[in-house]
Design brief:
25% strand, 4-stranded mixed sheet, 9-stranded mixed sheet, RibonucZ/Hydroxyglut_hydro, EC 3.5.2.6, metal-binding, single chain, 28% helix, hydrolase, disordered N terminus, beta-lactamase
Length: 272
């Protein structure tokens, strides 16, 4: 569902909330009762329509949405909302525009910190599936040049801005300034050639996106677009870029310690 570019999110808060929170039947992207029971056992998980939110560090919130794939069940995907003064920054969209609209509304109404800019970590639907919702809300969007080039081939909407990176992997220029206090780092190709990572130094946290897997993971998941040869080095580069990050968040596992990075490197070395 495409959001209408001229429609401010604030003006539709009541109608959107009613639509998001009033759904009673199981539909595309909705949280199943079984998932709701599972989340009830976690600490401080807030459900808002098709999205779950959980604070993982001071000023840092994880958003989780699901894509229900026949034969596989609901697949979770995580991103972040990071508070920055009177506003916030979004790391990755949800799977869909509808889910992403709920994230925008939650940040605006529940958190009271409207999203002013968003960065997406690579060109897959779990990270860029809600770009039209962001553009409909006039939110500035940023992605690696490679992500914007690949996005149309995958039926995804590119970000409106590209991120320049120095030879050391760190974002530079106007994009780096616009996304501060986020520290944007390109570790090299791993899960995809365009995967980027995000650090929040003030919260001793970092987001590895789909590059990093949980400490209990037994595989690296989808490798269709992966750089198999460089994957282990990319994960190591991520670790070296954020040595003080104690909370490691990722796309498809719950946030945890740096053990997630250690396990990812181990799994990647087994690909050789």
């Amino acid at each position: 569902m495409k959001a209408v570019a001229s429609r401010p999110v604030v003006l539709t808060a009541i109608s959107m909330a009613a639509a998001l929170l009033g759904t009673s039947s199981c539909s595309y992207g909705e949280i199943r009762p079984s998932i709701a029971r599972q989340e009830a056992s976690a600490d401080h998980v807030e459900r808002f329509g098709p999205v779950s939110f959980q604070q993982i560090a001071p000023g840092v919130y994880q958003h989780t949405t699901y894509l229900d794939l026949p034969g596989f069940g609901p697949i979770p995907s995580n991103g972040l909302i990071v508070v920055d003064g009177t506003g916030s920054l979004l790391v990755d969209t949800a799977w869909t525009n509808n889910q992403t609209e709920a994230i925008i509304l939650w940040a605006n109404v529940q958190l009271g910190k409207p999203i002013r800019a968003a960065v997406v970590t690579h060109a897959h639907s779990d990270k860029m599936g809600g770009m039209d919702a962001l553009h409909g809300a006039n939110i500035a969007t940023y992605a690696h040049t490679m992500s914007n080039q690949v996005a149309p081939e995958k039926d995804l909407t590119p970000a409106r801005n590209t991120i320049a990176f120095g030879d050391d992997g760190w974002a530079t220029g106007t994009a780096a300034q616009a996304l501060a206090p986020l520290a944007i780092y390109y570790p090299g190709g791993g899960h995809t050639q365009d995967n980027i990572t995000v650090g929040i130094p003030s919260a001793a946290s970092a987001f590895g996106g789909c590059l990093i897997k949980g400490s209990d993971a037994s595989s690296l998941g989808n490798l269709a677009d992966a750089n198999i040869e460089y994957y282990a080095q990319a994960a190591q580069n991520f670790a070296d870029a954020f040595p003080d990050a104690k909370v490691i968040a990722m796309s498809h596992s719950s946030f945890e310690s740096r053990k997630a990075i250690t396990n990812t490197i181990k799994l990647a070395k087994q690909l050789d």
